[in-house]
Amino acid sequence: MKGTVILACDVYDPNEPELSQEWESEETIQKMETTIKDLGYDVAVLSNPTEITSVLCNIPIEERKHWIVWNLIEGYQSPNREAYIPALCEYLAVPHTGSSAAVQTFTLDKYKTKLFLKSFGIPTANFWLVEDKNQTPPGNFPLFLKPNGEGSSLGINEKNQIQNTNDWMEVLPALVGKYSPVLVESYLSGRELTIAVLGNKGSYSATAPAFVEYPGSVYSDLVKSKESFVESLDFSVPKELTTSLQTYAVQIANLIGSSGYIRIDFKLEKDLPYFLEVNATPGFSSVYSTLPLLWESSERTYPELLNYVLDLGFQEYKHHHRYKYAKDKNL
């Protein structure tokens, strides 16, 4: 066997669809488990925090370099929720997939990410952060409201497109009450695009981008729902726009220092792309997740994707200085 993979996961619960919207389905976890076993690894699927922590702590110190945790933990509400596994693994000197805790926490905050990337010339629409339900509109209409720290389009529907003061007064208080703080953006009227970047620092490569097709004018939580998934990808992106998006995507990966994989969303206005957000813990379903579809668009297989991600995690463990403290202390 090549080693042991722990699939650390939150599993989607149809009885709690909102809180678990970002979590993977049981079918996805089973498919990943089977695929990774076929790659030559032992696999353990764990979803309880105490169990995950206990297992990691009890791996013999000299064996930890042969284990790797696939980070599928999304949690909810906490701004640190996507960083639980990376921080724990780094502290215990256990390899893991994906980006560091610092990158996970940073990119979950859409406002800070946009502010940072804008300072390096990445094009963004105007944006503001709102925490007061009584605040007046900070910019000209139309505007768009979204939770600042949620994914999977949580809290987003057609009403979030704000055309006037009445719309603002109707939508803002409820959104602030549930998801504060709220990100306010100048509304972009063009098509939405998505692209993935794979690799570690110094060896990034971007996939082909794709238009994200969905019914209606807003990429809502109903579109993203695992129970009614209606999103599709259109890869007929013009060559010039493809080059531009790939250049921005790799630049973004370098600026934030991502590892393994990220997915980046853009939207057009007058045929020019504007950055929306970075997802550092994208889904890995072979059916409904966007990143595997972007990967497979270049005739690469799902098993090849999972194998590459695991290799990147082991490479990061061997070479990145962020593991040095734990290695010195534990090994």
Automatic annotation (TrEMBL):
A GO molecular-function descriptor: D-alanine-D-alanine ligase activity
InterPro entries: ATP-grasp, ATP_grasp_subdomain_1, Dala_Dala_lig_C
Keywords: ATP-binding, Ligase, Nucleotide-binding
SUPFAM superfamilies according to UniProt: Glutathione synthetase ATP-binding domain-like
Top-level taxon of the source organism: Bacteria
PROSITE patterns: ATP_GRASP (PS50975)
KW Flavoprotein (keyword) present: no
Domain ATP-grasp: 114-311
Family: Belongs to the D-alanine--D-alanine ligase family.
Protein name: D-alanine--D-alanine ligase
Species in which this protein is naturally found: Leptospira bourretii
